[in-house]
Amino acid sequence: MTKRKMFLRMITASLLRRRSRMLIALLSIAVGATILSGLVTIYIDVPRQMGAQFRSYGANMIILPGEEGSLTGAVLEEAMQVIPSENIVGATPYRYVRLDMPSRQQSFTTAGTDFDEVRKTSPYFSVEGEYPQNRREIMVGKEVAETIGVRLGSSIELSYKPLASFEGEASADWVPGAALLGSSEGFNEAVLNVSAVLDEEGKISEIEVDALSQTENIGSLVGTDKAFLDQFLGKSLPLTLGEDVDALSGATISSQAVVDALNSSRSRENARLSENKEHYTVAGILSTGGEEEAYIYMSLEDLTRLTQEEIMDVAELSVSASAEELEGYAANIQEEYPALTARLVKRLAKSEASVLSKLQALVFLVTAVVLALTLICVSTTMMAVVSERRREIGLRKALGASDGSIRHEFLGEGMFLGGLGGLLGGLLGFAFAQMVSVHVFGSSITFQPLLLPITIIVSMAISAVSCQLPIKKAVAIDPAIVLKGE
Amino acid sequence: MALLELKNISKIYGDLKALDNVSIRVEKGEWVAIMGPSGSGKSTMMNIIGCMDKPTMGEVLLSGVDISKETARSLTDIRRDKIGLIFQQFHMVTYLTAVENVMVSQYYHSMPDEEEALEALGRVGLRDRARHLPSQLSGGEQQRVCVARALINHPELILADEPTGNLDETNENIVLGLFRQLHNEGTTLIVVTHDPEVAEAAQRTIVLEHGRVAREVINENFGK
């Protein structure tokens, strides 16, 4: 028999035949290792879990058309290939247009979108009724519904007035007695229409402004405020805001739009001002507690048909990735598609990162505390073991064991315990992490195979450290204690 | 040349002279008993002979080599290589079997050899108890295992500390019988005891009193 075999036989016999004491040490190592491997498993898996969790708070990246160029479905699809498809939770196109509701003489911001994707990027949307599924079905914000008094199943008419387009110089039409029409983009790029009549001297004698698309009770007042409108009477075109006429207080942009519309106005015959109208059924009413409640939502197809324009203003993406990865994706999109602008929804990306770093700190702290406790517990147990085995250690020394042998044997026992405890803890830790994950995040966790050997090594290291003091004590035992009939 | 020679050794603890200028000689193959009441310096002498302590003054010659100035580490080596120890309270490793206990001694000395260990147990009549744990052995059996353990590495000297102090008469006789056997084979034995019967089994008895050698008695009945 080799010395190594005898060594193993001695330490296994010591562990197996002196079970109760060793069980305590083993248990404390196993508990420590469980917490260690469990927390680290959660820690490794948590960014993914957190990502999914955070995705439920909405999009974290938006793609916009750049200075030049426009965003279409095809372009968006191409740009999204920069991001691994499995990381894309959802990608929702939005186009915002002001639509008028002729029956109420009001206008509302209407978003054209893809409702299947909305569900993914805005999971917090709470819809009474259902998301629109069929053509000419819409979802209205709660605020809109209350303002205009619609319910599920109500039918409403919406109309779109595109910017008038003209050919040739506008001033050619400004002849005495002309009836003019003009359009311009006002607040929020919403189109506002102006009609005017010139008198025989070529001065404005009548003016009518359709400003329903402008902000209610602010911009829209340019269409109703008599004092503002009266300023235009008797003036010749073109006009300059601030010189010929004053802006309506608080509605500078809409006022400018009225002036712009007049300055580009054409005779009725030359103006191509059209209005598209359709009837829609309210399929759902949206509550979010946010600004979305002031919008009307319809499918992008419906909006495209209504406006005869197939573009989108923005795409909201929900991407499952860390803040750094997100930044990388955005930068890549920016680089490969200069006509687009990709931005992170900073608030979300940041808070995700900060929650993660806090969690990281917490995991480190708890792990450190648990490891320290394990260290103390194992050390104390081994200390008690040494006291209990004083006589045996004395005997071994009397039989000729060197200090090195004693150290070696105790370290061997400690490491064996550490390894066994680490193995046990590594497996239990996975179960622990799985339990936490299922309860906290509601999803299962992936087993990290590398974590098992790491846990075992760390446990062995911990017990090796724990054994140092007890070993010192063991080595100091005087072999003479076995003599004398104590 | 004597196997063991203590030359004018003293061991002083503060004001107490545990050993006071003691000189003894033990020849190779001799069986010597050391007797004395408690406090006579028996234990101190035992520690010094067993290489577990050093005298304050004087020389300890083992096979002619002075070991009184050696470090604790080399004393451990000397003890392991030259001395077999037997204790009053047996002292077995409780979680190891009889044969494993014998092998522990081999383990520290050179190489564990189960066959040889079993043979040694056979010599003390315990071959069939080799796989028993100490708790399954009687006191006498345990002490016989310890005798087997002491002789396994063929030491030059077997040092026994009250080897029969915890044994009944039957087992005392068995152990003394074993000693007789070892003596006949040429093993040097030093037995520390306060039991006159055990001392009488030896060739010579050295009586200690107050840290000094009070007298030496040659056992005239030895071998009879």
Number of domains of chain B: 1
Compute the CA-based radius of gyration of chain A: 38 Å
- Element pattern of chain A in H and E: HHEHEEHEEHEEEEHHEEEHEHEHHHHH
- Spell out the helices and strands of chain B N to C: EEEHEEHEHHHEHEHEE
Strand order of the largest sheet of chain B: 6-7-8-3-9-10
Task: Give the terminus-to-terminus CA distance of chain B.
Answer: 27 Å
Percent of residues in helices of chain A = 40-55%
Quaternary organisation of the protein chains: heterodimer
Shape, per Cα inertia axes of chain A: rod-shaped
Helix content of chain B: 25-40%
Give the radius of gyration of chain B.
17 Å
Question: CATH H level of chain B: which superfamily?
Answer: P-loop containing nucleotide triphosphate hydrolases
Number of separate structural domains of chain A = 3
Characterise this structure.
The complex is a heterodimer of chains A (486) and B (224). Chain A is an alpha+beta fold and 486 residues long. Helices cover 47% and strands 19% of the residues of chain A. In chain A, the strands form two sheets. In chain A, strands 1, 2, 3, 4, 5, 6, 11, 12, 13 and 14 form a ten-stranded mixed beta sheet that branches. Chain A has a four-stranded antiparallel beta sheet with strand order 9-8-7-10. In chain A, helix 2 packs parallel to helix 12 and helix 2 crosses helix 13. The relative contact order of chain A is 0.19. Chain B has one domain: 3-Layer(aba) Sandwich (Rossmann fold). In chain B, strand 7, helix 6 and strand 8 form a beta-alpha-beta unit. The mean pLDDT of chain B is 91. Chains A and B meet through helix 1 and helix 11 of A and helix 1, helix 2 and helix 3 of B.
